[in-house]
Amino acid sequence: MLILLLGIIFLHVAALVLLFVSTIVSEWTTGEVGTSDLWKNCTLDNIGHICNAASTGEWIQVVQAVMILSIIFSFLSLILFFCQLFTLQKGGRFFLTGAFQILAGLFVMSGAIIYTVMSPGWVPEKDTFGYSYILAWVAFPLAVISGLIYIILRKRE
């Protein structure tokens, strides 16, 4: 049982770390002359790197908001898991923890989908998606799977 709990916690923390990295690091799209992400656009000029704040369009603000919400819900889910681990009665299920983690997964999926659909009008066509974007997509199934595991999991003594 202890190994199972450690595995679940490891899966949850891995998803949370991926959410943090994908939200913070500036590699959502990369190209020959620069990178762009949720917060800033950087280009390489003959002077050096020039970074400007991200567009103030509504869609990028929505992506910023849902990515932050995914981190908050995943973190709250981890705290709820530890609280329920010590307060839940024997045989009880971790429904609230699982629901929060599944919501975190749905938020990151929504942010990645919005970025996928809306970025072609904002990012040059020859740019490609970067590793932060890919990490966001990897965090989505990890968060949903860990949420489903929490819902299925029963507390034992």
Automatic annotation (TrEMBL):
Residues in coiled coil: none
Q: What keywords are annotated for this sequence in UniProt?
A: Membrane, Signal, Transmembrane, Transmembrane helix
Topological category with respect to the lipid bilayer? Multi-pass membrane protein
Pfam families assigned to the protein according to its UniProt record, in alphabetical order? PMP22_Claudin
- PROSITE patterns in the record: PMP22_1, PMP22_2
Signal peptide: which range, if any?
Answer: 1-26
Q: Could you list the residue ranges that cross the membrane?
A: 62-82, 94-118, 130-153
Instruction: Give the subcellular location.
Output: Membrane
Q: Which InterPro entries match?
A: PMP-22/EMP/MP20-like, PMP22/EMP/MP20/Claudin, PMP22_EMP_MP20
Subcellular location, principal: membrane
Q: Which family does it belong to?
A: Belongs to the PMP-22/EMP/MP20 family.
The name this protein carries in UniProt is Peroxisomal membrane protein pmp22
Primary gene name: PMP22
